[in-house]
Amino acid sequence: MKQIIESSGASRKVVTMSSIELLELVNQARAEFGEPEVRRNQFHDRVADELEGEHYKKFVVTNPNGTMSDAFDLTLDQCALVAMRESKGVRRNVRDKLKALESRQTVTVPQSYAAALLEAGRLALLAEEQAEQLAIAAPKVEFVDRYVETAGTMTFRQVAKLLKANERVLRQLLLDGHVMYRLNGALTPYQNHIDAGRFEVKTGTSERNSHAFAQARFTPKGVEWIAGLWAARIAKEAA
Length: 239
Prior knowledge:
This protein has about 240 residues and is of the alpha+beta class.
């Protein structure tokens, strides 16, 4: 992430992001929604096409395979334009992350010594609050990590209990995020999340009435993944 002072001499800082950083955000969001990654060359072609006629800086980077290619230095507005080509869930995810970055990074430079002292105090207080939140969260994170290392699959209710999450809210998070859907009244994972190893679906026949049934269970990988989504939701609400 870069910050560039406007040449007009105004005190407001303008946040910019490289197209490589934007691609990382896009691919993270795609992974959350079970979509395949976009390759760097494809993404940069998309950026150039979307922003044709706009002003932006171009630079050369070395790709992981050793080849060279162009990359771009973009404003957050330009990043949002490029993200509009993604699916609804992915672009909303990227939009929220861009807004969070802008709120943290686009600041006003204090114009007096007194204002600078006030800003320094605010930042110190914020850092202290964040440290306290991390300290509170650490035991929970460690507990989830220990579970992932040692345990087997879990039902939705067991996962909600593990995360100390409200079942209704957690269920809605899974439904809204297209992680699971209702099938005959039961939460059922989308196939891409099963393929990613986050769920196992147990099938069988009821001894009482001989009806076939299917039960979705979170794998350790799935528990770790949903714990990250839940933590991100809590952090967003607290922001």
